[in-house]
Specification:
Two copies of one chain form a homodimer. Chain A has helices spanning about 10-30, 45-50, 60-70, 85-95, 105-115, 140-150, 170-195, 205-210, 230-235, 270, 320-325, 335-345; strands at about 5-10, 30-35, 55-60, 75-80, 100-105, 120-125, 135, 155-160, 200-205, 220, 245-255, 260-265, 275-280, 280-285, 285-290, 295, 305, 310-315, 330-335, 350. Chain A is of the alpha/beta class. The first copy, chain A, has two domains: about 35-225, Alanine racemase (TIM Barrel); about 240-350, D-serine dehydratase-like domain (Lyase, Ornithine Decarboxylase, Chain A, domain 1, Beta Barrel), CATH 2.40.37. In chain A, strands 2, 3, 4, 5, 6, 7, 8, 9 and 10 form a nine-stranded parallel sheet that branches. In chain A, strands 11-12-18-17-15-19 form a six-stranded antiparallel β-barrel. In chain A, a hairpin with a 4-residue loop joins strand 15 and strand 16 (about 295). The longest helix of chain A is centred in the middle third of the chain and has 23 residues, at about 170-195. Chains A and B meet through helix 5, strand 11 and helix 12 of A and helix 5, strand 11 and helix 12 of B.
């Protein structure tokens, strides 16, 4: 593949398989798929979603909304708390495309009300237990007040991201969190149904969207990571290693046989410092074998055990250390594909 | 300052003070300062170093060497293990500028010997205890063999990076590591002095270069981080908060008074996921007060306690939570300025 330095490879075929599976799931559950584009942030990868007939997307910043709007996307939800400092760009964008913003508290609603007269579409962000942002699902009063404050605007529905599934210790626990989310959102929908019979319930996280079967009352799902998956999802039991569609190709620059360590050109500026624990130790990526046209699981699980700015250190087995030479290129499956992709905007599609 | 989204601010005056102090130290110790440009990677900030009369620099990739060579830098050390896959660019660059590469093992020397006939300048990388890459300082045999293998090339000297100072628990411990480094490098110099009377001893890390007074036998220092410093250096006792020359300006997008949490627009794609421990808890940045022209320490230490892609969560005091409004902009001092800078190439100079 003519790799000379760290290069992120994207397997288009795997992306399409992952996308087809999620779309089949959404269709079978009669739920709209509004994929989150923060994972790839790429116009080119966005085109794949167009090929699958998708027209609605999610982004995590006004900047990303602008970028995809310029590329022809006409229906965009910014799934990030409303930032009043960007009201002008939001107003301009709302004139051009169907734009939904997120109101995550009563004071956020108050702020929006006070700074615009333009009619904007908004979701109320609901906190179903992740406790990052949003109004607690049980807090009907605050929710009602926010909606009342914004009566001049267009209320779309309730949106939640159950990010606490990423802390789950088992698939069972992910499904329990999802069940709890569904229950809370369903009650909310019932609570506001008489006033807003057409409100949308939108849920988000890749673990739930991939694993769950029960989407009762849900109208829309917004997973993002699923198009690539990564080591974190593998570790949670959400995907298989073979499903992961991104891999960082890294030149081997040194080998230390006394410590069974391989030094690669590939560090924190390529992979990000996101880590997971494996046998109580921090790991930053998993090693795969790379050929000209593909990557393959090794017989053993071998990991990147530390990262500095440009260096990665692999703790190798005796077998691996004796088959690898300086100048070879190894593949590293990233822990968090969204952050790795953000650092490698000049990715390459894997040759087939 | 017209901030509407996360924006890295660089305090030029602080950069210059940090640079002047390090240059004074180097001059007083009769050591050459060859600053590491991986910290800023910026042509514009590079110009400040030119103003101070500096002509030699360090970088951590061939790509960075190319970039700074194109901008007129004529004497560049690539302080990263030699990557044979980039030999062509290395050869081309060596024709244009004074370029030093790094040989970090006997097999790395063998590889270089086998793939080029061009005469190249090289350092031998010495491992004085960090155990990332390089030949152990005591391994005279391997060092001698590497030098012998590369007899057709130009041996410059020994280079080490005592990165284990970043694991030190006290200033005392940093100074002990530095003393150990100096001792090991001095012995090496003596060992090879008869054959190479003009060899250069080059040491690297910001903690040692900032704190130590003993630079016996050292010819060159290559600190990088010192131009900005950061929370990690503050935590090690290497700098004061007032010395830190970078700050991420982040809009406040929500406030949760029940949990004493402030949600900022500023996440892992702006700060990086580098963290340090404070009272056994992970922190990702420290909050400072931001005005139109400067940033200031708060009365209390308030930290960013979690990051997702675009969100940051601040655990606030009762006092802070009642003075902050949605739409305000807070300053966040990053944990690791090199990684934060890498994510914010469109930084702004702080107005004065």
């Amino acid at each position: 593949m003519n790799i000379t330095k760290p290069t992120l490879l994207v397997d288009l075929q795997k992306c399409k398989l992952n996308l087809q599976r999620m779309l089949d799931k959404a269709n079978s559950k009669k739920v709209d798929l509004r994929p989150h584009f923060k994972t790839h942030q790429s116009i080119q990868i966005g085109e794949i979603f167009k090929e699958f007939g998708l027209k609605k997307i999610t982004v995590s910043s006004v900047e990303m909304a602008q970028k995809f709007a310029e590329n022809g996307w006409q229906d965009i939800t910014i799934a990030f708390p409303f930032n009043p400092l960007e009201i002008k760009i939001i107003e301009q964008l709302s004139d051009k495309v169907e734009l939904n913003i997120l109101i995550s508290s009563q004071i956020s609603a108050q702020k929006l009300k006070s700074i615009t007269r333009q009619k904007l579409n908004y979701f109320i962000e609901i906190d179903t237990g992740y406790h990052r942002s949003g109004i607690l699902a049980e807090d009907f009063k605050q929710i009602a007040r926010a909606i009342k404050l914004l009566s001049a605007h267009q209320f779309i529905g309730f949106l939640t991201h159950s990010g606490h599934t990423y802390q789950a210790g088992s698939i069972q626990e992910i499904l329990e969190i999802h069940r709890d989310t569904i229950d809370k959102m369903k009650i909310l929908k019932q609570q506001f149904a008489s006033e807003f019979p057409h409100l949308t319930l939108s849920i988000g996280d890749t673990p739930s969207c991939t694993l769950a079967e029960n989407f009762e009352s849900v109208d829309e799902m917004r997973p993002g990571n699923f198009v690539f998956y990564d080591l974190m999802q593998l570790n949670l039991g959400v995907c298989k290693l073979e499903d992961i569609a991104v891999c960082l190709a890294c030149p081997v620059v040194d080998i230390n046989r006394d410590r069974n360590e391989i030094v690669i050109y590939g560090g924190a500026v390529h992979l990000s410092k996101e880590h997971i624990l494996h046998n109580s130790k921090e790991i930053f990526g998993q090693v795969v074998k790379l050929t000209d046209t593909n990557w393959y699981k090794l017989d053993e699980d071998i990991f990147v055990i530390s990262l500095s700015q440009e260096h990665g250190i692999i703790k190798a087995s005796d077998e691996l250390i004796h088959t690898i030479k300086i100048g070879d290129v190894l593949g590293i499956i990233p822990v968090h594909s969204c952050l790795t992709m953000n650092l490698n905007k000049n990715f390459k599609f894997k040759s087939t």
